[in-house]
Amino acid sequence: MEWCYRATVTRANLLTTLDLITSRCFICRTAYNTAGRLVANVGHVEVDDIIHLFYSLNGNSKYQGSYVVRDPTQHPDSAGAVSHQGNPLSLFEVNAGTTLDQILDPAGYIRDPTLDVFTGWYVEEFDNPDFDADQVSFRGRGALQRFLGSSAAPRAAAPAVSGRGSSSPPVVAVQSEQLRPLPKGKCMLGVDWSGAQNAGNKIWAAMLCSDARGVAELKWITRPFDGRSAAEVAGRFAQWLTEQDFHVAGLDFCFGLSIQHDVAEVPADGPAVLGAWLADRYPNPDVFRKAFTPEIRRRTDRAMRSPFAPTNLRMFRQTYWGIRALTGIQMQIPPWNGVGDADKRSVVEVLPAHVARQFIPGIPYKGPSEAASQNRKLLLQGLVERYRLIITTNDKNLIIGDAEGDAMDALMAAIAAGAALESGFEGAPLGLVQEGWIYSI
Hints:
By secondary structure, the protein is of the alpha/beta class. Helix content is 28%, strand content 20%. It has two domains: 2-150; 177-439, Nucleotidyltransferase, domain 5, CATH 3.30.420. It contains twelve helices and 15 strands. Strands 1, 2, 3, 4, 5, 6, 7 and 8 form an eight-stranded mixed β-sheet that branches. Strands 14-11-10-9-12-13-15 form a seven-stranded mixed β-sheet. It is globular and about 70 Å long.
């Protein structure tokens, strides 16, 4: 079953809501209202249902993402499922003193008025780029309502999300002949980016190098900016990138902005120029986003089914610091530099989620649950087999063990960059060079 849930600013702001989902796989929701009655529809939400999250501000509800409800007893901060009249709900009680418990109170959330503890859903993101939010119309004041539109997640496909109903893992869905191969005798760098305050602790980089047969070895995978803030990383990134030995680098952030924004004199020459322009006019991400509101997807975002626009509330910091990080880069950046020259070092925008979608479509691989860990294992297995990758056992364990999926994303960024190089950086339409293009497999 699918649900639409409307969060509001009366509890916490949107960024806090999204940060809780990203960092703790948690959507806060009391089980009971102040009258001691079960909140409408809460008792009907079951494990493996899908919640389409909306955030309401000034009377407008905007879609933020879709999430699969997981077993409430399996969350690391769970004190057990909420019980109502002897029946367990899909909500869990947050264990006192845990990391999550210590986050919620200062963030503005309230404890359940009957249970006197924080409660909520354990969730994992559901890749759902085709969900049409325009179908949703909230009726009355209810925050949680049944989704009545045409199904965005067919129930026949639901077992693949968590493997429920079967002891066998989901099958990799990739059609190998449809994917571009990696180039021979080249090194490919992948960077999974972050615009968070502690960005250095979340940015991963991976280096793949292929031999004359096209067999690629993972040379290293690491967090090169540990302990650095987003601003510090952006200031150091160009030099770090220049020092790396690669033929092509794939970076997981937006290189450009929609041409439909009503902002004058935006440079059309790519992120190396745009980065300096942003720094001169917008000293921080919040000022930048205010100038480029409302959020507008680029043509490449629609074509590659990217879940968010560059200036979306979940993305604008990543976009801002990413573009600023490329200020003055003296490398080829397709599509601004024609179709690319294989003999020159190139830097391209990539989208790891697009790579993952070719192997395990609709199956979440990020999160601390055993199901997500198994999905990371499945995804890595598919990548290794398809691209004949050589990866040490230690590095495999590191990638699978990274619950946030950032190490996996860095590896997929390198693969996407290599496939783009092999294709000659094809795909970008000539008429929209200013917006940039997402390159992939």
